[in-house]
Specification:
mainly alpha; rod-shaped; 2 helices; 109 residues
Length: 109
């Protein structure tokens, strides 16, 4: 009883091809998992970097902005709001609005 060589080749070839397909599928799945983990790590790094940058900006604002500058801005803002409030009060009373065209009332001659 002699077995043909083509049968032997077919008998050995089929499991080898199946094993190769299984290995390729495993490699593809492994690469996909690695890519997803890498994307997740990168997104975590970006989030952490943004948080650290926000903290640094806050620290710079606290440490490097002089208190006198903050007071000056606050004072100018308060004066401007008081002028706006005065104009609105005048409009409520029925006064004609005065046009200053960007000049303050106290700066006008």
């Amino acid at each position: 009883m002699q077995i043909e060589t083509t049968w032997w080749i077919s008998a050995v070839e089929a499991p080898i091809v199946a094993a190769l397909f299984y290995m390729l599928h495993g490699l593809r799945r492994d690469l996909q998992d690695r890519i997803e983990r890498s994307d997740q790590r990168e997104s975590d790094v970006v989030t952490r970097t943004r948080d650290e940058l926000a903290k640094f900006k806050l620290e710079v604002a606290r440490a490097y902005v002089p208190l006198s500058l903050i007071r000056d801005v606050d004072q100018r803002l308060s004066q401007h709001l008081l002028r706006i409030e005065g104009k609105l009060e005048g409009l409520r009373r029925g006064d004609q609005p005065q046009r200053s065209y960007g000049r303050r009332a106290e700066d006008q001659p």
